[in-house]
Amino acid sequence: MRKAAVVFVFVTVVLDILALGMIIPVLPRLVEDFVGGDPASAAEVYGLFGTVWALMQFVFSPLLGALSDKLGRRPIILLSNFGLGLDYVLMALAPSIGWLFAGRVLSGITAASISTANAYIADVTPVEQRAGAFGLLGAAFGLGFVLGPAAGGALGSVDPRLPFWVAAGLSLVNGCWGLFVLPESLAVADRRPFSWARANPVGALRMLAERAGLLGLSAVGVLSGLAHEALPSVFVLYAGYRFAWGPMQVGACLAAVGVCSALVQGGLVRLAARRFSNERMLVFGLVFGAAGFVIYGLAEAEWQFWLGVPLMALWGFAGPSLQGLMTQRVDAGEQGRLQGATSSLRGVTGLLGPLLFTQVFALAIDAASGGGLPGAPFLLAGALMVASAALAVSVTRAGST
């Protein structure tokens, strides 16, 4: 039963990311249609959609995490599946930009349950095997990231609202499957009473400061998470400006990134976890992530840029190792709160990162300001990764003494 449950959680994450990826190619088109076909207005509204989605992650991840510590993981995960399915139905039927915006808000809320999926894995996995298990969830992200945009593009060519219907169907069917195969992972004796003081973002983040080692590890995650925002924020703009890439080349590169990431997190992380400590794997992943960003930023030819893809994929060692280290520092009844707090921090980086890296990119290509280094956002991200790796060395050494 435990294996079936873990498979269900894996499939849930795949479908969540798949559904999110499916609407990427069509959501901007729908927004543009609703604003009368004006690309500038569409860009402004679409940017607001992204900001609000990240804000919902920031606010609701701690709430759902605290609820899962009180009620158990099963009801939160299942409610998310059904909620996400109904949300995509709303977006498929949206008659105006306001309804579409409401759907995006609900999507940000229901997608925040991925933190509960992480807590479920922590509940059912021995400490020494958690890095490999979290690596599988990372592979689920990669798989969904590869399949989602491709499927969305194909379905959207038939009807721009069709990807929403398919995403809704997948989420609802998966929720029905979970009713039969997903047992509760959190024992009643380990549950914690619900408290608004712990369920709000400030209260959730306070926990990170109160537990030994969590604050430093959280800072490592914030720095690397902020660096990651360079990719969704400016990758398409950068590739078009520097290499004149169109949708086909961008799609091929994103697919390669997803495949490499899935191979690393779904296979190599599990193998490495048997031989190396979480601390070593964390620093290893961060260093290679920094190297990948530097190659991206300095590449003057396409083949040079492509060299950064497999190196960047090795960054995948860091996330599962960081999760493994952090879950060791709280007991079973606080795993949901921990995952909610870390997801809330990801929401913060999602709010700050796009503004930071797009502004750096604009300045870097502005001839009037002496610009001429379009890879500056990636170089900045590389610097953040170096800082993250240095902090990781310091924190993990302090924790081992």
Task: Provide an overview of this structure.
The chain is mainly α and 401 residues long. It folds into two domains: 1-180, MFS general substrate transporter like domains (Growth Hormone, Chain: A, Up-down Bundle), CATH 1.20.1250.20; 213-401, MFS general substrate transporter like domains (Growth Hormone, Chain: A). Helices cover 82% and strands 0% of the residues. It contains 18 helices and no strands. The protein has helices at residues 2-23, 27-34, 39-71, 73-93, 97-111, 114-124, 130-158, 162-181, 196-199, 201-210, 214-228, 230-243, 247-273, 278-298, 302-313, 318-327, 335-364, 376-400. Helix 3 (39-71) runs antiparallel to helix 17 (335-364), helix 14 (278-298) runs antiparallel to helix 16 (318-327) and helix 14 packs antiparallel against helix 18. It is globular and about 55 Å long.
